[in-house]
């Protein structure tokens, strides 16, 4: 099969011929229809998140099952599917409780093994992790779901518990941030988006943000949290660090109103970061980490996509070919573009 492979951290990803993946006994092999290019792939490529080299990245994908192992009961060749980026083992206490996203034995195509920047990708524990794609959800749209959109959905709904009229602050308007903007606005929240890119803020406005704050301007001016407090009449009810930076995480906590909720979604590969715990206790804030979403929780999200409440397809910025994935990764050395980049292989 063809795959995008890099030999070392930061080395050029090259489209090349490699052996097809073996089908796990409890898993499937999926012919990739489309695969997103995510900042987490960039982190792995840069060596922030160790992988086995040489490596094939890619963890947000949709496609068609081409082979199923003997232990798989629910899936067959020809099924259109997607998967969460964190695939549970299916058998531990966390998986059995429906929390595969924190399974200690989880597998992640593109991190713990070869990923979806390839014509074929293997998925373990298929019965626990595959999600059926409705016929009217195309592969490019579905490739947005597995990581950034599902992560944003769970952050906004399960952790954030946003209600109509609540202020939702979203810090960082890359793929996961813009997803959170759209989901929050669609569910009736008043969304305030923060970024340093004018293009990303313009996109946030289109996706439903009522207010935007240009962090590049405000960093030099008044305190960002104070500016958000003023715009929201006392602070955000829910705030998400969708970028992943110590400074942004602290700012996200500081911009909350009393009893507010901070959700850490952006990865912090540099290790522990200080948060203003004095503010946490004084305002009785809640702090959550959000790590994707288990396959079990997809149906509620799929229903909102099917009934037209949510439009993940609108988050797609650029559709590219598999051979352009390396260039898309390199582009992430700079600030986020306006939307998700997705490589289309079929359909
Ligand atoms: Zn498990
Ligand atoms: Zn991702």
Q: What would you note in describing this structure?
A:
It is built from 13 helices and 15 strands. By secondary structure, the chain is α/β, with parallel strands linked by helices. The strands form 3 sheets. Strands 3, 4, 5, 6, 7, 14 and 15 form a 7-stranded mixed sheet that branches. Helix 7 links the parallel strand 9 and strand 10. The longest helix has 15 residues. The radius of gyration is 19 Å and the shape is globular. The two termini are 18 Å apart. The mean pLDDT is 94. The structure holds zinc ion (ZN) (2 copies). The site of one zinc ion has 8 residues, from helix 2.
Provide the structure class: alpha/beta
Helix proportion: 25-40%
Major beta sheet summary:
7 strands, mixed
Radius of gyration: 19 Å
> What's the pLDDT, averaged over the residues?
94
**Spans where pLDDT lies below 50 across 5 or more residues:** none
The percent range for strand residues is 15-25%
Cα separation of the termini: 18 Å
